[in-house]
């Protein structure tokens, strides 16, 4: 089942966690039940949180079989391109197409209150969760850096003091899919609890060449102790391994520049979605259509091998909460490490990556006790990260080897005050000061083949893919030098060492007003700024990205707590917006580049409704309209680009102007519909769930070519389950993507090969699931 965000009501916290509660429960009057969130760093009823936020509970994650961010795309504002290297997250069209350490994400990912700096490290957390909060728009005060598009908060179930309980779930489906997770909670006296959780996921590849196969597992251990009525300490450690055959793609076609017509011409491949890049048919297409760089008449060799993922991600942190007369003082020190060993071909070329990253952080905050005229949140945060990265890619005629070290040190301090002018009127103001100090050193080495005898080009050998520069069979001795590679063929070496440092700081702010217009209705309006740090390419730095967002919203409940209606109007203004894309930089190297492209405007509306017309019937609907347009989208590239935008030669460069185009991954209309019917059968109950999502057409790449446009899609899911009414056990049958629509989630032309590759969504999957709790 896909996931529908779960806005609910009332004034009490929802008990339980993953596998132990439902999103919506029946109260004494058959109405809706509350969710308590911490999106604003203090526990509050979701319906009283004056921020745009969607929530998915842990029970819904179990029911849907969600094992990663990709299944959260039914949150209307959120789209996720889950690939072999991690998750590319977009909120209302704003995100990042890059996994490289030189580029930071636009949507902050926070695991158990810890900011995770790398998009490739956002895997292995989706089990035994209390809830996931998706905050929409900049979070410039409480969350700070790199949260210009929003934030995703993944919150695990915490140990329960003095209680022995747990749950287990296992499912089996097509593609030989196995998914299992569970948790055991052990009470250690009345004032302590230990919780051990784990998950395992395995399935065959969704593409014909076996790619997108998964074989992953994770474990989490937590100890929570109430040392005194005022002092609580929680220790947590986790480990996740992601393995399998990594991400796959399919050739969409080839392109070539027609000098006579003065434009690029595309020849479609004719492959159906899900073909893959390494089937016999795909390899034959590649070796007869893909141009080997600048070698006239030479086509590409087959890809070196099937891709793979070998990620190890682990960390530890503590949370210390001290109740004082002036509020709750919280201290969160944390360390996280990620070891990435990856070979990926989704871009249509051989790309390998070895990466080690370590991040350290500590946050201290003071949250005032409730019931004061002025509520306050005061905090300080420090983040430090070091990344050692080794990236190597090859098209056969060109081989690139980039070794680099990136360091970031980012201290910040923040404050937010809320003034309760009356019982029904509140004003909020917030400030955050952030400083980013970044350094990098790198060495880029490029080997390029060229013909000295043109007649030899069509049959000349190509360079093999190797993980290191030293493994290449022929290497010139000096920068700029050449060496004979084969009869009539030479190889040239270009070495580009680079280093740099940058220090930027930013003061971001928030202003808001909240107005209670009834016992269960609220209006709010806010203005907030956000900031994403700048960074470095191998050829040039790029500047920070800034946003100012305006929001007007309302939250309501009616008819004795049986109907909820929330609505939001938003207007986001970006300046110096960052874009990461696959291209050719100023040194002639093919790779992912980040540029500041200009300004964009994102405005629209979102409406969510939840109803329980009968005690056992729940209906949901959510609709979002987005008008997302680049007001200024201009960049330069040294090679003639294949784009659907205006291109103007400017000296030795080409100026590309895509102003007026829509943002990527930003469908104008998104509609979610869902229904649940519970049928009591004595001590048992039968539960039927169904949901569907519509998205209008959207762009899946930044070049704005026809091959990157995905038409409108409908994706539907259904589930039927039978179990005890108290939830002790259940058995369910499910089907996801009933339409079997393998719509496109990402596409790109591949410089140097003149091929176009696209990544498709997961096909129809189905299976059965058993669950129990105690």
Automatic annotation (TrEMBL):
Asked whether the UniProt record includes Transmembrane among its keywords, one would answer yes
Q: Which residues form the TonB-dependent receptor plug domain?
A: 47-151
Presence of keyword S-adenosyl-L-methionine: no
Q: What is the annotated localization of this protein?
A: Cell outer membrane
- Name the GO terms of the biological process aspect: iron ion transport
Q: Which residue spans traverse the membrane?
A: none
| Topological relation to the membrane, as annotated | Multi-pass membrane protein
Q: Which residues form the TonB-dependent receptor-like beta-barrel domain?
A: 285-738
What are the record keywords, sorted?
Cell outer membrane, Ion transport, Iron, Iron transport, Membrane, Receptor, TonB box, Transmembrane, Transmembrane beta strand, Transport
InterPro entries (alphabetical): Beta-barrel_TonB, Beta-barrel_TonB_sf, Plug_dom, TonB-dep_rcpt-like
Q: Name one GO cellular component term.
A: cell outer membrane
Family from the record:
Belongs to the TonB-dependent receptor family.
Q: What is this protein called?
A: Iron complex outermembrane receptor protein
What is the scientific name of the source organism?
Sphingobium jiangsuense
């Amino acid at each position: 089942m896909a996931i529908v965000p779960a806005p609910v009501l009332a004034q009490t916290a929802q008990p339980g966690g993953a596998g132990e509660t439902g999103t919506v429960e029946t109260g004494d009057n058959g109405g809706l039940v509350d969710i308590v969130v911490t999106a604003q760093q203090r526990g509050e009823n979701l319906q009283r949180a004056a921020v745009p936020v969607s929530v998915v509970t842990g029970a819904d994650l179990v029911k849907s079989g969600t094992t990663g961010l990709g299944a959260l795309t039914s949150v209307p504002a959120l789209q996720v391109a889950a690939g072999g290297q991690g998750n590319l997250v977009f909120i209302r069209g704003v995100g990042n197409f890059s996994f490289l350490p030189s580029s930071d994400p636009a949507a902050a990912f926070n695991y158990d209150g810890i900011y995770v700096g790398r998009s490739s490290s956002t895997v292995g957390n989706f089990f035994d969760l209390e809830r996931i909060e998706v905050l929409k728009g900049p979070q410039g005060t409480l969350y700070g850096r790199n949260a210009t598009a929003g934030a995703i908060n993944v919150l695990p179930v915490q140990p329960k003091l003095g209680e022995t309980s747990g749950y287990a779930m296992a499912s089996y489906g097509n593609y030989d899919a196995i998914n299992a997770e569970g948790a055991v909670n052990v009470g250690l006296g009345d004032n302590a609890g230990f919780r051990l959780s784990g998950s395992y996921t395995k399935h065959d590849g969704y593409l014909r060449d076996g790619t997108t196969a998964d074989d992953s597992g994770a474990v989490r251990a937590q100890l929570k102790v109430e040392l005194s009525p005022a002092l609580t300490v929680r220790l947590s450690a986790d480990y996740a391994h992601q393995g399998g055959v990594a991400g796959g793609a399919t050739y969409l076609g080839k392109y070539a520049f027609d000098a006579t017509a003065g434009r690029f011409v595309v020849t479609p491949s004719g492959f159906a979605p899900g073909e893959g890049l390494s089937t016999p048919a795909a390899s034959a297409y590649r070796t007869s259509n893909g141009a080997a760089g600048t070698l006239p008449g030479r086509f590409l060799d087959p890809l070196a091998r099937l891709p793979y993922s070998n990620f190890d991600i682990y960390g530890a942190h503590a949370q210390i909460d001290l109740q004082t007369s002036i509020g709750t003082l919280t201290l969160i020190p944390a360390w996280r490490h990620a070891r990435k060993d990856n070979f990926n071909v989704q871009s249509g070329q051989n790309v390998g990556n070895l990466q080690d990253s370590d991040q350290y952080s500590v946050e201290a905050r003071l949250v005032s006790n409730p019931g004061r005229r002025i509520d306050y949140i005061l905090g300080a945060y420090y983040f430090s990260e070091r990344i050692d990265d080794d990236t190597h890619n090859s098209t056969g005629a060109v081989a690139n080897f980039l070794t680099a070290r990136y360091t970031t040190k980012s201290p910040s301090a923040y404050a937010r005050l809320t003034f309760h002018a009356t019982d029904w009127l509140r004003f909020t103001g917030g400030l955050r000061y952030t400083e980013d100090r970044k350094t990098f050193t790198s060495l880029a080495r490029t080997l390029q083949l060229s013909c000295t005898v043109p007649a030899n080009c069509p049959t000349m050998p190509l360079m093999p893919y190797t993980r290191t520069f030293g493994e290449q069979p022929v290497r010139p001795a000096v920068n700029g030098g050449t060496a004979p590679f084969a009869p009539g063929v030479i190889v040239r070496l270009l070495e580009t060492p680079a280093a740099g440092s940058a220090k930027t700081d930013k003061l971001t702010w928030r202003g808001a007003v909240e107005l209670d217009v009834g016992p269960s209705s609220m209006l709010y309006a806010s203005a907030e700024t956000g900031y994403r740090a700048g960074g470095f390419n191998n050829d040039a730095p790029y500047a920070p990205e800034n946003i100012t967002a305006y929001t007007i919203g309302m939250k309501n409940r009616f008819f004795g707590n049986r109907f909820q209606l929330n609505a939001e109007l938003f207007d986001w203004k970006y300046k110096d917006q960052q874009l990461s894309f696959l291209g050719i930089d100023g040194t002639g190297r093919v790779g992912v580049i980040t540029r500041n492209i200009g300004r964009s405007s994102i405005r629209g509306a979102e409406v969510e409704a939840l109803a329980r017309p009968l005690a056992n019937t729940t209906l949901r609907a959510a609709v979002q309209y987005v008008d997302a347009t680049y007001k200024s989208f201009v960049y330069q590239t040294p090679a003639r680009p294949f784009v659907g935008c205006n291109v103007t030669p400017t000296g030795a460069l080409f100026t590309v102007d895509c102003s007026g185009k829509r943002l990527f991954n930003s469908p104008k209309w998104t509609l979610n519909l869902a229904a649940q019917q519970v049928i009591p059968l004595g001590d048992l109950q039968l539960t039927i769930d169904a949901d569907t999502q519509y998205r209008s057409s959207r762009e899946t790449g930044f070049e704005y070519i026809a091959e990157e446009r995905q038409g409108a899609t409908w994706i539907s899911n259904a589930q039927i389950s039978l179990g005890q009414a108290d939830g002790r056990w259940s058995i369910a049958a499910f089907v996801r993507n009933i339409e079997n629509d393998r719509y496109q989630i990402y596409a790109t032309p591949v410089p140097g090969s003149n091929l176009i590759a696209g990544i498709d969504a997961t096909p129809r999957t189905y299976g059965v699931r058993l669950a129990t709790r105690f």
